[in-house]
Amino acid sequence: MSEPSLAIVIVSYNVRADLERCLRSVVGRSAPFPTEVVVVDNGSTDGTLALVRRDWPTVTARAAEGNVGFARGCNLGIRATASDLVLLLNPDTDLPDGQLQVLVRALLAHPEAAAAGPRLVDGDGRPELSFGPMVSPWGEFTQRRLVRAYEAGQDWAVARVERDTRQPGPRDWVSGACLLARRADLDAVGLLDERYFMYTEDVDLCAAFRARGRAVRFVPEATVRHLRGRSGDTAPAATERHRRTSQLAFYRKHHPAWAPLLAWWLQRRGVDVGHDC
Q: Which residue, of 45, 96, 159, 216, has the greatest Cβ tally within 10 A?
């Protein structure tokens, strides 16, 4: 039997150096899977499109109509391809040799799974908590507590993250920084929900898969480096606004009874989410 085809979709916004590193790690390194790579540029001003078109002739470069956000950018890339599998990949990642193949094989070995995500590590090799429970008041509280303790170097949190990020199996969600999905499942749920400009769209997508009785798997056998948050470094206020706007949109969709309280809390904190409150 022939190997399934793969599309790698990368949405980029003013992270030219990171994108170059990412492309070097995937272009021509996905054998035996027939692969096309699509970069969707969200209106970058750093010459990203010119770079891709000049230096990466086998990569398809598509210009979005301005900064349309991550979910819509991903959908533009997905619709521009016709592969069996789709890898959503952040430009601030790079994949060591062989790791993409491990991730693909792991998904193919589990026909009940719609999607899979690898173990993400930072530039120093520290694991990232790139999965978690369904977003909810309690789920967010427990996840935030663990992340803060881990970042503070508390022994119990470090031990737990090290342990949990070595255990494969089903999860409520895996990070959209590197998320492999079957096209049939993406089509069945209508791709990513574009009401999320940035953040939480990966949790929502995984929730949509699971609502159809499909699994989402964490695959620690595959390791991907993630220099997280680079595209938001130059505009932290806007990044926080997008995070909170997406959080509110998620609660309105999945936990409508809690949404008014969240909107009130955001207003009390002085978080500007525009008309979304």
A: 216
Distance (Å, whole) CA 214 – CA 212 = 6
Q: Are 114 and 209 in contact, with CB atoms under 8 Å apart?
A: yes
Q: Are 49 and 20 in contact (CB under 8 A)?
A: no
> Cα(274)–Cα(249) distance, rounded to whole angstroms?
12
- The dihedrals phi and psi of 189, each to the nearest 5 degrees, come to -100, 0
Plot region of 75 (φ>0 → left; ψ -120 to 50 → alpha; else → beta): alpha
What pLDDT digit, counting tens, does each position of 186-228 carry? 999 999 999 999 999 999 999 999 999 999 999 999 999 998 7
On whether the pTM is more than 0.90, the answer is yes
Q: Which residue in 203, 236, 231 sits closest to 134, CA to CA?
A: 203
**Positions of the chain with pLDDT under 50:** 232, 276-277
Task: Give the C-alpha separation, 79 to 83, whole Å.
Answer: 10
Reference 226, options 5, 12, 3, 18; nearest CA is: 18
